[in-house]
């Protein structure tokens, strides 16, 4: 199939449905740059731990943000990009290998598309549908190359990071968008989007790990030599921190959330035990005092455990990718260290905890955006979706089977 | 005139039988022991008290293999024998470990049979360690809900909490010592109410009335003190007893039974002081029953046990509307301290999330058995 060069629609709408909040942004594409037209944010309803539990409530919530942004933009949305995160989306590496047929071993454009086609011929596991292919390095005779066309070699390998999703889950999301008379243009991997917003090209080139800890899930993505090497998700998020505090101090969710934001930490220090803190601070009726050490102990245990789960998940995937060399998570692989995004990146000493558990330097990723209230790590995902929607659209090799083709297949049986 | 023992202690399943066997030598005379299990070896070897093997036909004496349905069938098959054992004692204390087959499946059946025989049933249920995996945790939760509907009182003993009680270097055998102490304390307190000769006696009928209705939240706490101010010390220890301090456990109850036992030097004043401290911590506004007893060999030691229940939740009014959800009828009465809310907090009611065999919705500090500062 010929690469598509369909002009981008002038409106770009992205919706990030998280466990805690649903955010929509609408921008207009002018000279390759998006100008923000309107945005809306609402508390998500019907999603627990990153999984849809009440479709009706979620639909109402998404409908509301869509109405908001349509009013702000002054026109109806036709198609949207939807974020994709959490354990519902699973990623794996797929490979297409051909031996270069030409007598002079020169790689042609046709060879490249043959290799791509052979990579994409690999069926996803039963009950799952492919929603995304993301480019990984192309390898010619065991050497990674940027563009193999015109180079000489015998063996051409193309690699993709393929994201698949449970078919029932996919139907649910597509149905939800269609019910609002819109088309789902594509999915964007939330962690990749966050990286688009906060990681520089140089960082991705060198090697960087992004950990996006939202309310319900912690998604991570690892870039090496500019491409996605692997990505994954842990079903633990900021809500677990809140829950742990609520259970330990026997306080309501609201109080626990407030205490988490003010006093929780990624690292527990001995002198936290000497600090007494007040719930409201006015020492009036109903005010309660707590030992700060209890809060930092509970939160640091949870935060560091989650990072440990991330570390094990990454090592497991690296072992599959490089079965012959055991790969370590160190500065050799990730010279640019770790970037933290998502609401939990606001946790005090989060970067110290990363240094402790992963042994890598970390920084909090704050997206650059024209609206000031979005310049926070929890908005890196949705801001990055805008960038990803623009930059990812004209990929050099379009996938032969578009998203719609996948859908047609889905609804045929 | 010889009187039948007023309390029957039933150890059910592997965990229940072994705890009962450990407790048996030190039990008061008021307590009769019955071990019930599907495993023929456990029944034969356990030693202490009477034993009843259930499910001979179903399991051939091999245990249930962790299958609660089999445990329930096994107990139902021996209903007549269980009923005979439960006629007589005013109080049946059921000790079992939930998560496996016999405990989770048979416990609700045994509790029902005992209640039908006219006894007041107080159950102590140990819940599996977080590391025991998804299936056992699910079975334990299901068993807890079924048991809570049948027993008059249900106290959870979380194995994870036990780990927090002992130091990291303690031998495994010590892990269960805390649970034994708690259940032993409860039995001594309950037995004391039925034995004559208390310094401050309590009416056994009133004690039973505290646990009158199944499905109401149950509180149990136990504490020991010694030396000067032992009674108050014991009361404070009970106040911070992990059973009552477990996340999500009942904190304040309307009706309270407080048992204070001490050596010959303990005065009534000491006892009342202890009760005051207990009431401050746990409530007991409508009823506080006090039982105080002098135990000669206690020396300067004092132990305090607290048992309480808050008022049962009002039953939902029957819906007259046609087509009302049938699920309403099946709604558990047990809207309170199940395993779910105790350990999973705000995630109670959501599907469990397993990583490396642990339910990660349970707070990390509980799973890793980290004792919290000031907790």
What percent of the residues of chain B sit in helical stretches (DSSP H or I)? 40-55%
Strands of the widest sheet of chain A, in order across it, are: 3-2-1-6-11
Largest sheet of chain A: 5 strands, mixed
Which percent range fits the helix content of chain A?
Answer: 25-40%
* Amount of beta strand of chain B: 15-25%
Report how far apart the termini of chain A are.
Answer: 25 Å
Please state the average pLDDT score of chain B: 78
Q: How far from one another are the termini of chain B?
A: 49 Å
Q: Show unreliable segments of chain B.
A: 313-337
Q: Give the overall shape of chain B.
A: globular
CATH class category label of the domain at 89-167 in chain A? Alpha Beta
The CATH class of the largest domain in chain B turns out to be: Alpha Beta
Number of structural domains of chain B: 2
Structural class of chain A: alpha+beta
What is the CATH architecture annotation of the domain at 89-167 in chain A? 2-Layer Sandwich
Assigned CATH architecture of the largest domain in chain B: 3-Layer(aba) Sandwich
Kindly describe this structure:
Chain A is an alpha+beta fold and 413 residues long. Among the domains of chain A are: 79 residues, 2-Layer Sandwich (Dna Ligase, domain 1); 66 residues, ATPase, substrate binding domain, subdomain 4 (Actin, Chain A, domain 4). Helices cover 35% and strands 29% of the residues of chain A. Chain A has a five-stranded mixed sheet, sandwiched between helices. Chain A is globular, with a radius of gyration of 23 Å. About 2% of the residues of chain A have low confidence. Chain B is an alpha/beta fold and 375 residues long. The longest helix of chain B is centred in the middle third of the chain and has 18 residues. Chain B is globular. The interface between A and B is medium-sized, with 26 and 23 residues.
